[in-house]
Every structure is written in C-alpha cells, then in structure tokens.
Amino acid sequence: MKRLTSHVSVILWLAAGSVLAQSAPAIWLDKSLANWNIAGAALPTPPRTGNESTRDVIARCKLTPPETSAAEKLTAAGWIPFLNFEQRLERDGVEVLGGMAGSDGMCRPNQYNVFVFVGGRFAGTLSPVLMDSRFDGSSGAVRLPLPNITAEFARYTPSDPLCCPSSRVTVRFRIDRGSAGAVIVPLDVRTTRG
C-alpha cells in the first residue's frame, strides 16, 4: 500500500507540475519589452512533446500545411506549420506562419510559436516563449500593417474559464532590415480589451 501511495503521489506531483508549467502567466507581456530576436539567427527546433509523432498529429488533425517556402523551412526544422489566422499572411516579401510541436485533443496548437520570414529568411518569432492554446499569452489575430506587424495575445487570470480570457493585449513589432538580415523587434504592448 505504501508503494502504491508513493506512485500516486509522484503521478499527482508530475500532473500538477505539468498544469502549472502550461498555465504559467505570460510574464513577458507585463514587463518592458526586450528584443529576443537576433538578425541572422537560425530557425529554432521544436521541443519533443508526448508520444505522438508529427505524422500522427497531421493525420489525426487532418492538417494540410500551406505550400510556401516558409512552411517548408518550418517542416525541415521539425515544426508542424499551420495557419492560425483566417487567411494566409503574406505581403511585400513578409510571411507570418504558425509552427507547432504538437496539439491538444481538439487539434489546437500546443508548444507553438508564430514565425516571421522576410524575403524567405527567418526573421524572428512573435513570442519569446512557446505558447499553448487557451492559456495566458497565447496568440490571436496577427496583422501586417507594414512596415509593422501587430499580434494579439490572450491574458487569462486564474479564475478565467479556458474559453474566455479576461483581456487581450496587442504587441506591435517593427521589421528592421540590416546587413545581417531582417529582424523582428517588439515595440510596445497595449491593452485592447479588458
């Protein structure tokens, strides 16, 4: 009985740690923005998530990744490309595309980020940390009012139901084009709904 109790305790401790890790607040949205993107940086690789392979997620969710050079680059790096928006975001050589490491049971992206490519080259991400759908800091609408990019992020409080964050913020980014390559620079955070 003692052995069973210790196994149950370990399982509960691991489960609690997993929930806390997923629901940790997106603190980066509460601080002065520092740029996490570096001109000429390599496309990051996704973390390993669960037992489900990339092929399994694509088959289960019936995903058809977009056929673009950015999608090919994300796939080659191990990400599952997806459109997190109503339409493909591409304008004047700038393409914005989601890339996820896995998905939840409803095929919502988990351990994902939003990647920006300028002139076909990786220019940065719209979040310094990986996001999970329906948790604090998860991305929403992205727009390309060039030369800027805007991205909306959900802000949840501990009492919010998963369907409905208490507020949303919009982060505005600038595309800096330099000799080392284009890079995405965060400019400011504004509350858009409260």
SSE arrangement:
Blueprint (H helix, E strand, L loop, with lengths): L1 H22 L30 H7 L8 H9 L2 E3 L6 E3 L2 E10 L5 E10 L2 E5 L13 E5 L4 E8 L11 E12 L2 E13 L1
Antiparallel strand pairs: 1-3, 2-3, 3-4, 4-5, 6-7, 7-8, 8-9
SS strand fraction: 35-45%
Summed up, the helix count is 3
How many domains comprise the coordinates? 1
According to DSSP, the number of beta strands is: 9
Give the end-to-end Cα distance, rounded to a whole number of Å.
50 Å
The biggest beta sheet is recorded as: 5 strands, antiparallel
Portion of residues in helices?
A: 10-25%
Shape assignment: globular
Quick check: average pLDDT? 83
The ordered H/E elements are HHHEEEEEEEEE
Catalogue the unreliable spans. 1-23
Secondary structural class? alpha+beta
Roughly how many Å is the radius of gyration? Answer: 18 Å
Key terms:
single chain, 194 residues, alpha+beta, five-stranded antiparallel β-sheet, four-stranded antiparallel β-sheet, 36% strand
Describe it.
This protein has 194 residues and is α+β, with helices and mostly antiparallel strands. It has one domain (23-193). Helix content is 20%, strand content 36%. The protein contains 3 helices and 9 strands, in the order αααβββββββββ. Strands 1, 2, 3, 4 and 5 form a 5-stranded antiparallel sheet that branches. A 4-stranded antiparallel sheet has the order 6-7-8-9, with no helix packed on it. A hairpin with a 2-residue loop joins β8 (167-178) and β9. The N and C termini lie far apart (50 Å). 30% of the residues are buried.
